[in-house]
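INTERNAL TRANSFER SHEET
From: sequence group
To: structure group
Subject: RagB/SusD domain-containing protein

Please process the attached sequence and return the structure record in the designated field. Keep the field labels unchanged so the import script can parse them.
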Amino acid sequence: MKTLKYIKFIVIVLAISFIGCEDNLELAPEQSLLPEVATSNPANLQNILTGIYDEAGQTVSYGGQINLASELLGNDTDLSWNGTFEQPAQLIEKQLVPDNTFVRDYWLNAYEVNNQANIVLANLDVFEDESERNRVEGEAKFLRALVYFDLARLFGQSYNVGGGNSQLAAPIVLEAILNPSDITSPSRSSVEDVYSQVISDLLSAYSLLPDSNGVFADKYAAQALLARVYLQQGNFAGARDAANDVLQNSGHSLTATYDAAFNNDGNSSEDIFAWQITSQDGVNQMNTFWAGQAFGGRSGNPDVSVNSSFFDIFDDANDDRSQFFYTTSGGTATTKWQSQFANIPFLRIAEMHLIRAEANFRLTTAIGLDPLAEINALRSRSNAVALGSITLQDVIDERIRELSFEGFGLHDIKRLEGTVGPLNYDDDFLVLPVPQRERDANPNLMQNQGYGS
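Return from structure group:
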């Protein structure tokens, strides 16, 4: 049984005024709280914080559609889109338009999460207990860093290891907005500035959060996300050391079998952080798009089917990961997302093993574990034959076998400077357009190349 019940905490800025002939009444809706009340005590601020997890886990964001964007936009021939929605079809065809509603909703949800995190951070003085204050601050910074990282990766060109990184990403807004009159029209910040903000928030979150925090983010969730950020930057020493810290000290471990890492009602030993789904709250949209109809998927059965070319990545027919699929009338479905109400793993300990192995290999070090032993430990868990030696490509291939369909597709192609069919990793059409709705409201938002002026 899950312990988390999400609370949607809506801050109503303006009270409703009713003016009669003989009296003047100002009544606030019973289900609403004015801003000064909503932020007036620790319990209310905690409710806002809990609501941010619910906001970030919505279907339009980490509940499924951000992963879908990375996998479809980063796909050449391995996946097919069978669904009826035009928005994902534009992703897989690399023919996005600025009014694509999926893209619009990624952006809007990120800034909803950001503003609610800013509200929490602006009102920490209501806490008298220092440990409680630190935890709340750390969680808010973790969530803010999370959305900015993906805003940079999806709406900005890839991070350049050589420096510069003046390419535009998304506006950085760190002030809480409680009144519509306070809304500004910021310009887009650079990729460098957004990454710097993300890293600053995660370093702070790591220092503030407790070692364990139930189903909410703890210090090792912050450290695991930081390892992911450093890897995307090509900061291999930072990625290695952050991943090693998680592996050595978090208490998380690989599940005994590959199957046991997925479709769980509660967190497994492998989940450093997972989005919580119940039959009462939350929707696992990974299931909606990737599962066959018999398991809760849409009429595409599945909407996203896995093509035969994907299976070329496997070098051992006995590898459990090569058999983690099932056939439907619409194609081949991955078994990773087979349960409607299962949690969505987001930071898995397997990813930390792969980050540490890759970073150690590139740096010719063996912090924590020799890269060959690390890769073979993952292969052993999936009943794949052990390798006698490895190359960098072996490490990358192992990453694909382990993490496919979990939202890494586009981002790994960009950091490895690969291609998607005829498109180079830095092609304009592997970056999402700034939503037209946002540009209509804010004339200071410059559009990405290839999508008009």
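Handover comment: Strands lie at 16-19, 24-27, 79-81, 271-275, 304-306, 325-328, 331-334, 344-348, 419-420, 423-424. The chain has one domain: 16-441.
Transfer complete.
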